[in-house]
Specification:
The protein is mainly alpha-helical. About 45% of the residues lie in helices and about 5% in strands.
């Protein structure tokens, strides 16, 4: 912890100096980044991977702005992959169990028999093949009951860009009970 505190204090001091941001970004090399990534690489591979990706993006941005030059020391391919084990070697990916498609009608019947907004939301997500966040954010204004189409606004899509229409209620064209 003392090392982290010293690093934070050093960066804080550096960033108060004129053009220190540029100098700090320019000095960014492997050792400090590996010191942060190594302890969590095997224990929290998803967190470490996201952190690594953010570092790569920050340094790429700094290069594009002319604040640093040279190769990006945070890229995986041809660089970090030579110093850290691949995620596939340290973390077994375990997928959630899936419902057998033949059991879906019985499951949907049980879901319709349950009370509560959670059951309605899950049924809606299943029938529309939507992400849970999209379902939680849905409004009645987005749903055209006559056409049985739900149009998710572009700003709420994970891959934003344009509105995304999708069949709203399956073949029967009615809201889940």
């Amino acid at each position: 912890m003392l090392g982290v505190a010293l690093t934070v204090a050093q960066h804080d001091r550096d960033l108060r100096q004129p053009d220190a941001r540029h100098e700090a970004i320019q000095r960014h090399r492997n050792r400090p980044r590996l010191r942060v990534l190594r302890p969590i690489w095997a224990k929290k591979p998803e967190t470490a991977s996201r952190l690594s990706g953010r570092l790569e993006m920050i340094l790429s941005y700094a290069t594009a702005r002319g604040w640093r030059d040279g190769p990006n020391p945070a890229v995986w391919r041809g660089h970090l992959q030579l110093m850290l084990p691949a995620r596939s070697k340290i973390a077994l990916v375990v997928h959630h169990a899936a419902l057998d498609w033949r059991e879906a009608p019985a499951f949907m019947a049980k879901l319709r028999a349950r009370e509560g907004m959670g059951a309605r939301a899950l049924a809606f997500a299943i029938l529309t093949a939507a992400r849970s966040g999209e379902v939680r954010g849905a409004t009645w204004a987005e749903i055209d009951l006559d056409r049985a189409v739900w149009t998710i606004p572009a700003e709420r899509m994970k891959a934003a860009g344009q509105p995304h229409p999708r069949p709203a209620f399956g073949a029967r064209g009615r809201a889940p009970a």
